[in-house]
């Protein structure tokens, strides 16, 4: 079950509860979390996220960050992204701009795109006909006009405008923003 908590930026440090579940609030944008097995609080770190992340920490399980090279390897190998797509995703989800990917930044990526990121990147690449590395506003609007909201209704122009404005630059939409936009459409319910 996905829940939007709010649109506030949090900087809470990760904590561990008495069940051994690690949790934290999302560091940027929409605070979105999923419930998982024994981790009933919506802020818990999903075990599959931690397991994937730990495959790339070079035997130091206390490390909560992957350097740029290891993060790109994770994105390419585990999610079948091209080098170019992995760099774009890394750029978007490295929210503190330190050149590494924290466990919490990775969880944010996984919640938004995760296993479907290769499909999203393929759509993005197919629409980027001039191979600029970004989509223009009109192209994204055309894509959104073919989509439906979470409650199955067609998006109106005002809905699309609101969703487009969530991008860092609404005239040049890079893969990371495109992922976030598609996720917002998935959660968007008209009249809410």
Descriptive key words:
mainly alpha, Recoverin, domain 1, two-stranded antiparallel ribbon, two-stranded antiparallel sheet, disordered N terminus
Strand content of the residues, in percent?
5-15%
Helix content: 40-55%
**CATH architecture descriptor of the largest domain:** Orthogonal Bundle
Describe the main β-sheet briefly.
2 strands, antiparallel
> Over all CA atoms, what is the radius of gyration?
17 Å
Corresponding CATH superfamily of the largest domain? EF-hand
Strand order of the largest sheet: 1-4
**What is the structural class?**
mainly alpha
Instruction: Classify the fold: give the CATH topology of the largest domain.
Output: Recoverin, domain 1
State the distance separating the first and last CA atoms. Answer: 18 Å
Tally of helical segments: 8
The best one-word shape is: globular
| CATH class group of the largest domain | Mainly Alpha
Structural description of this entry:
The structure is a single chain. The protein folds into two domains: 2-114, EF-hand (Recoverin, domain 1), CATH 1.10.238; 128-187, Recoverin, domain 1, CATH 1.10.238. Helix content is 43%, strand content 9%. The protein has eight helices and eight strands, in the order E-E-E-E-H-E-H-H-E-H-H-E-H-H-E-H. It has helices at residues 47-54, 68-79, 83-93, 103-112, 117-127, 137-145, 157-164, 175-187; strands spanning 2-4, 15-16, 22-23, 32-34, 65-66, 101-102, 135-136, 172-173. It has a two-stranded antiparallel sheet. It is globular and about 50 Å long. The model is unreliable at 1-42 (pLDDT under 50).
């Amino acid at each position: 079950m996905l829940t939007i908590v709010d649109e506030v930026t949090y900087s809470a440090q990760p904590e561990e509860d008495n069940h051994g579940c690690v949790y934290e609030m999302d560091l940027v944008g929409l605070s979105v979390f999923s419930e998982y097995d024994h981790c009933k609080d919506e802020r818990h770190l999903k075990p599959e996220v931690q397991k994937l992340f730990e495959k790339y920490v070079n035997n130091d399980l206390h490390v909560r960050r992957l350097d740029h090279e290891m993060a790109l390897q994770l994105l390419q190998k585990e999610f079948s992204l091209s080098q170019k797509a992995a760099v774009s995703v890394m750029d978007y989800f490295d929210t503190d701009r330190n050149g590494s990917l924290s466990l919490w930044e990775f969880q944010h990526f996984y919640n938004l795109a995760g296993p479907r990121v290769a499909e999203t990147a393929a759509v993005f690449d197919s629409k980027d006909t001039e191979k600029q590395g970004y989509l223009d506003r009109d192209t994204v609007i055309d894509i959104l006009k073919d989509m439906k909201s979470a409650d199955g209704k067609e998006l109106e122009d005002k809905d699309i405008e609101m969703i487009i404005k969530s991008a860092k630059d609404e005239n040049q939409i890079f893969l990371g923003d495109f992922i976030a936009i598609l996720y917002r459409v998935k959660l968007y319910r008209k009249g809410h």
